[in-house]
Write a structure and sequence with these properties.
This protein is of the alpha/beta class and about 260 residues long. The protein is built from four helices and 28 strands. Strands 1-4-7-10-13-16-19-22-25-27-28 form an eleven-stranded mixed sheet. A nine-stranded parallel sheet has the order 2-5-8-11-14-17-20-23-26, with no helix packed on it. The radius of gyration is 20 Å and the shape is elongated.
Length: about 260
């Protein structure tokens, strides 16, 4: 049974699921869907275009599906879609898409800490942690099991691969490949992210192969495509190695640590 405060402002057109808890002073607009089991703490704002899946917890002063901070936005009805089991802490802002053929997408079981801002058309996968004050610009892709420490700034259009970690205070404008730690100023490759890979069940043998692959990338060939050829020739194939090569080959803006 839902527990909805009579001090919340909820449009009669909004779709509210079962067993939802809505605290006082929550504001929900017309074109909003809230899944079963969600908890909305005081002063949460769900704007038009919100699609909130099941069992999400959204804390105080968060705004979901805010109007894009993008000069190309002309007032279209656009979407911000959030999956299941996410924890969204205080003062988070998530913008909806700029155009009707796009979406801002947040997957499942992510943890967004206080003050995170996710801009228009960002795609976030599953099981990620975005630290205090992280700012994600438009059209960014964050894959799965990624950790952003506090105060990270991701500039427009970058991609971050699976199981990577960005250390505190970093700003980056190029892609961060999977399975690595990135840090320093300017941002650089800092080794493989062994701890997270172990937690994800990647064997020690494969982790060693990943380290060898990145030696070829960051300490070998200057050209990424040549590095990919060497990886394919010299490193034992696995789904993880294949993912690295595919990520590198499809980078449109280059990767960190490379000119």
């Amino acid at each position: 049974m839902s527990n909805i405060s009579d001090k919340a402002v909820i449009s009669p057109k909004a779709k509210i699921g079962k067993d939802v808890t809505i605290y006082p002073f929550v504001y929900i607009e017309d074109d909003v869907e809230v899944g079963d089991g969600c908890v909305l703490y005081p002063n949460v704002n769900l704007m038009n275009g919100t699609r909130l899946g099941k069992n999400n917890k959204v804390h105080q002063n968060t705004v979901i599906s805010a109007i894009p901070q993008d000069f190309h936005y002309k007032g279209e009805n656009t979407i911000c879609e959030i999956g299941e089991g996410n924890i969204i802490r205080e003062n988070v802002v998530i913008n909806r898409a700029t155009f009707t053929d796009g979406k801002t997408l947040i997957g499942n079981r992510n943890f967004l800490m206080e003050g995170v801002h996710i801009s228009h058309d960002v795609h976030v996968g599953n099981e990620n942690v975005l630290g205090y004050g992280t700012k994600i610009a438009g059209d960014v892709e964050i894959h799965n099991f990624v950790i952003f420490s506090s105060g990270v700034i991701a500039n427009p259009g970058v991609r971050v691969g699976d199981c990577s970690m960005i250390q505190s205070g970093c700003r980056f404008s190029k892609d961060v490949p999977p399975y690595i730690v990135a840090g320093s100023h300017p941002i650089k490759y800092g080794g493989i992210n062994g701890f997270v890979m172990e937690q994800c069940g990647i064997s020690e043998k494969v982790r060693s192969h990943i380290a060898n692959a990145y030696r070829l990338v960051f300490h070998g060939q200057d050209d990424i495509l040549n590095a990919c050829i060497q990886i394919e020739q010299q490193v034992q194939s696995s789904p993880e190695i294949d993912k690295i090569v595919e990520f590198l080959k499809t980078s449109k803006i280059g990767i960190i640590g490379k000119l």
